[in-house]
Each structure stands twice: as C-alpha cells, then as structure tokens.
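WARN no homologs supplied; continuing
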Amino acid sequence: MPQQVLKPGEFRVSDLSSRRETPFDLQPDAEVRAKIAAQLNVLGVKKLRFTGEISPSGARGWALTGQLGATVVQPCVVTLDPVTTRIDEPVERRYLPAEYFDDVEPGSESEMPEDTSAEPLGTIISAQDVMVESLLLALPLYPRSENAELGEAVFTEDGVAPLKDEDTKPFAGLAALRDRFDENS
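OK structure emitted
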C-alpha cells in the first residue's frame, strides 16, 4: 500500500524520532495566507508564522509546542472598517493513543475534560491544521476600530420619557447624589 503524500506542515507519526524533538517552521506564502483568510472569514492575513517542535510524550504519545505569530485584518463590528490585530500566542497540543479516549461511549453524556489540549493520535500530526485552528481561536470576537461608536438607541411610547442607557446604570443616581452632597459641604 503506497504511503499518503504529506502536505506542508504534516508529519507522519511513524517517521518521528522517539529520542529527540522534530522542529518545524511554517511561514505560508501570500497565496496560502489568502486561502486561510477565506477559510477564517477575515479580510486578510498579512503575516503568519508558526514555529515549534513535536516531541515524544509518555509511552506512546506526542506533544506539539509552538509559537504562533500573525497579523490579521478583520472588519470592525460597528463600521466594517478594516481592523488590524497582531496575535502572538503560545500553542500546545498533546496527541494521545485512542484508548485514552475510549472511556466515552458515542452519544453518551460526559463531562468535558480539563485538558483541552489533548487530541486522539492518528497516523499524521498536522502542524498546519494546528496553526489555522489556533489562529481562529486567537482572533478577537468583536474587533472595533478606534473611532467606532455605537451611539444610543432610544425607544419609547408617545408621551413617555425615554429610558436611556445611562438611566439603567445602577450607580448613576448615587454619583449625582454624591456630587450634590459635595456641593453643599
């Protein structure tokens, strides 16, 4: 049976050294960054680099540790103007044999494990996939440009004084009372 052709950033587990780390340094070109930007639904990925190593962990497991660096452009949630964000994140994944995950029956309820970095060990470890997933998780959920303001929406029935955002703040009245007290002192 012919061996599967590996994509950049993929490592066949059977080829990894069990005695030393296997380093990697992924720096996708503009074409690959554009594909990643489309996959993540962002305006662009200006820079992207993922460096690290895969090392043996325990009897049959593997650990991937690395550093993700990226410059990403997303639309502002208020104005849709481009917002550029610099991301620098440490990344860690542990690949464990299937029996580590066999305790859970499909479709049954179980508690989430505390170790969210553990993944089932397959025949290939893809640093490329870890890079894209880690970038997605590091993206700001609500990017805002510096000049973005939401404004204030006021809704009310005719003839009724509108309730404004500042009226709903529980300590706004106390601040006004304190200010009057200070003036009278």
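Residues 10-138 form one domain.
OK
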